[in-house]
Amino acid sequence: MSPRRRRRVAAPPVALALVLALAACGPGEPTAERPAASTDPAPSGSPGSPDASASPSPRTGTLESPETLATELESPWSIALLPGGGALVSERDTARVVEVLPGGGTAAVAAIDGVVPRGEGGLLGIAVRDGRLYWYATRADGNAILRASLEGSPGERTLGEPEELLAGIPAAGNHNGGRIAFGPDGMLYATTGDAGVPARSQDPASLAGKILRLEPDGSVPADNPTPGSPVYTLGHRNPQGLAWSDDGTLLATEFGQDTWDELNVIEAGANYGWPLVEGAAGDRRFVDPVQQWPPAEASPSGIAVAGEALWIANLRGQSLRRVPLDDLASSSVHWQGEHGRLRDVAAAPDGSVWALTGSTDGRGRPSEGDDRILAFEP
């Protein structure tokens, strides 16, 4: 395997074009029935320092009655919390990055150039680290991971020239994986799907059906399981959740096919079985999930650790699942059918949990104001 890494991408004049309002033209353009997201003024921060925004206000929502932080998002996919308050959200089908301001309201940041949305592909996972935005996106030549400097102050942020970190990840209309997150070891982790070809998941030379581990600059860490390879684990169908417990344990959620969705404890170099097995198999060649559910009750996407528990956003299950970290085999289900499909969840610096709905992804039944971000104290 010879993945392409760290190639500088020349940005054409329209690349990462600054969007002055969420009514900018492009896929998912707001209509009279779906007005653009609000652009309320935000507290000022130090220009050029995206982490220097105002201190976050305490959340007032509860699990039973969550607070609404943002509405009118179009096919949102991922939340990246900003250390000083507020967050960035990726929109899969519009390829836009939207800022949720610390003081309320939203503002557009940029339209990412070169994204080719199709089916489950588009602008997917995002993460913020050391003043840069990282993203996972579907392009004409497959899925890729890129980054750019995040500049400006709240409500006036822009992106610098994009830098390609890893390309050549197989893409398809479904099973693109797409979650990226930084671990406590400072490494960048990414989930990839089998892109509709199950055999790729068991092929160590393919980037499909894997969890990948990279240095922040896209190079391969010296202590990865296979020297020179970004592959950290294999045997995955379509994982979309990554989170770490306080003791450094990596947890991942994964979409099954017809039988079982999974919650897995991720171990370096391990094989999770797909397509040879789905769910727990008791086969010593593979790592069994610590918990599994019928897909109609789950379809687990983003996850986060907060308040001594793991929180899981469920799409088909239209619910938020809580898994206590001291008992990974048990769980409780909340919000059943109350807020539609849930795509992502994140732990905010103030201790609250942010949940991103996903009813405008073409498979849900959006209500007025969807999609939205809901917040509560765990």
Please give a handful of descriptors for the protein shown:
mainly beta; 37% strand; single chain; 27 strands; disordered N terminus; 378 residues; six-stranded antiparallel beta sheet; Neuraminidase
Instruction: Encode the helix/strand succession as letters.
Output: EEEEEEEEEEEEEEEEEEEEEEEEEEE
**Fraction in beta strands:** 35-45%
Question: Which fold name is given in CATH as the topology?
Answer: Neuraminidase
Q: Distance N terminus to C terminus?
A: 43 Å
What is the name of the CATH architecture?
6 Propeller
What would the average pLDDT be, to the nearest integer? 87
Task: Supply the CATH superfamily name.
Answer: TolB, C-terminal domain
Can you tell me the overall shape?
globular
Radius of gyration: 19 Å
Number of domains: 1
Can you describe this structure?
Residues 73-363 form the Glucose/Sorbosone dehydrogenase domain. Keywords: Signal. Residues 27-69 are annotated as: Disordered. Residues 35-58 have a biased composition (Low complexity). The chain has 378 residues and is mainly β. The protein has a single domain (67-376), classed as Neuraminidase (6 Propeller). It is built from no helices and 27 strands. Strands 1, 8, 9, 10, 11 and 12 form a 6-stranded antiparallel beta sheet that branches. A 5-stranded antiparallel beta sheet has the order 2-7-6-5-4, with no helix packed on it. Strands 3-27-26-25 form a 4-stranded antiparallel beta sheet, with no helix packed on it.
